[in-house]
Amino acid sequence: MEMLSLAFSIAFIALSTFVLLSRRRSGRGANLPPGSYGWPIMGETIEFLFGKPENFVGDRMNKYSPDIFKTKILGEKTAVICGPNGHKFLFANEHKYFTAFRPHPMQHLFRSYKAAAAAAPAPAPPPQTQVTDETKAIRQPGFLKPEALMRFLPKMDLITQQQLQTHFAGGESVVKVHPLAKTITLTIACHFFLGINNPDRIARLVKYFDDVTVGMHCIMLNIPGTIFYRANKAANAIRKELIAVIKEKKAAMASGAPLQDILSHMVVATDPSGRSMPEPEIADKIMGLLTAGYSTVATTMTFLMKYVGLNPEIYEKVRAEQMEIAGGKKKKEGELLEWEDMGKMKYTWNVICETMRMVPPLQGTFRDVLTEFTYAGYTIPKGWKVYWTVSTTNTNPNYFKNPETFNPSRYDEGEAPPPYTYVPFGGGPRMCPGKEYARLAILAFVHNVVKNYKWEVVDPNEKVEGDMMPEPQKGLPIRLCRL
To answer: Which residues are recorded as binding heme (predicted)?
Structure first.
């Protein structure tokens, strides 16, 4: 009888331990943040995607907590960490509590080589090569360091000039800014990352990248007519195009072509075992890099044209600064921009910063929780996701006086926003590695536009569409006048 009682006791203890561990793993029983998981299965994904993400976050900050709240979006239990203290905590604890996480639609669109490797008879790549972030491919050879960008800056300038001459006709006309900005940024990115200049190929890629960008944060419903179906189809088309470029690059390199772009270095790179990266994996990584250097830069260019066009006094200040730079050239007319010129564009950079505050080119990103942690008195379990967003500070009057007003002068010395309130490029170890690349591309664009054109925004009240990546509903038509 005693043995039977002992057996029952052991079984009870084991069962209790299992239940407690299960609850701990799922987050039950923990002091979770306030909030709601929303509907079964879908959670609050619909509200997150089809409302505006900044409204989604702001409404819940007001309802639950200004520091943190829980939700369920894109299939994941998620803690949204808010405000400047949240930014500081996240940036200071990268790799300790968090690692990068791509929502499932992005994993599917940018990680096709995993499935291909698993299906192939050859051994799958080692785990460390499978999870390598593509930013490593551009950090290691130093492509985004100042000395590399310094050499590429004249090409950025020249490409911008050529695109403006092609798309901005002489005299007065009405043109759409957003399609042009996308073509310029993708042309620059194809030069920089791939070493190619094929206008027809780039024109094909623009439409594909538009569909992929929209599909990165969507409901994964892969049937004709859905956002994800179009994105998946576009990703396959881009992958096919990029694999063709890779084969051309390999042939050129075999003939003695120099390693002058990121793609060339990816082609020759090997892991510790001496294994080269498969072509589909290279294509997926390049697709990720092109996407990152495409939509966000084009978005900032577009909305800068809107706000500068709506504020003639700001246009005049920007033009005066750029004309002084142009007039200071000592060599023959038509000399391209130099590194020193970019340091003189202080007011213009303030205008760009204010544009990104008013319309963040990317609303936010996700992190995977590596180990359980506590923040603001609440516990976030391992395996949850954290959503980081700039929108909890950008329009807060506690940090930005008259936040609805477009005011580039707020970034002048003495008026700069408090720490961790303005972080368009993130911070900490995962600060955007392409920050300087984006800065140069946008400054080169502004320099060439204001030197040669004046414009009027056709519809000042044009709606802004998009979820995570905003865009003007009609493409931002402007009435252009060549000077």
So the answer is: 432
Task: Name 182's Cβ contacts closer than 8 Å, sequence gap at least 6.
Answer: 206, 209, 210, 294, 295, 298
- Specify whether the CB–CB gap between 70 and 34 falls below 8 A: yes
Query: Which run of H or E residues covers position 110?
Result: helix 104-110
Residue 154's H or E segment, with its range, is: helix 146-167
219 residue type, one letter: I
Amino acid at 264: S
Smallest CA-to-CA distance from 390 within 414, 346, 347, 358 is with 358
CB 184, CB 160: distance < 8 Å: yes
428 in Cβ contact with 436 (< 8 Å): no
CA–CA distance, 372 with 399 (Å, rounded to integer): 31
What mean pLDDT is predicted for residues 8-18?
Answer: 41
Order of all β-strands in the sheet with 173-176 = 173-176, 477-482, 453-457
**Mean pLDDT (whole number) for 411-426:** 85
pLDDT in tens, 21-72: 443 444 555 799 999 999 999 999 999 988 777 889 999 999 999 999 999 9
Structure tokens at 59: 């409404």
Domain spans, the chain: 109-482
CA distance 76 to 107: 14
Considering the entire predicted model, what is its pTM? 0.87
392 and 82 in contact (C-beta within 8 Å)? yes
Helix-helix angle 177-189:279-292, to 10 degrees: 140
Phi-psi region of 376 (alpha: psi -120 to 50; beta: other; left: phi over 0): left
Name the region of 377 (left: φ>0; alpha: ψ -120 to 50; beta: rest). left
- What class is the 109-482 domain? mainly alpha
HSE value, Cβ hemisphere, 13 Å, CA-based, for 77: 17
Distance CA 190, CA 402 (A): 40
Q: Which residues fall within 8 angstroms of residue 389, CB to CB, at 6 or more apart? A: 53, 54, 57, 80, 82, 363, 364
Binding residues for heme: 432
Tell me whether residue 456 is exposed, middle or buried, using C-beta atoms within 10 angstroms of its C-beta: 0 to 12, 13 to 18, 19 or more.
middle
The enclosing H or E element of 249 equals helix 227-254
Select from 142, 148, 188 the least CA-distant residue to 441: 188
β 385-389/76-81 pair status:
parallel
Binding residues: 432
Positive or negative, the Cα torsion across 159, 341, 361, 471?
Answer: negative
Percent of the chain with pLDDT over 90: 60
* Distance of alpha carbon 45 from alpha carbon 217, whole angstroms: 10
**Mean pLDDT within 382-400:** 92
CA distance 68 to 195: 44
- Chain centroid to CA 247: 28
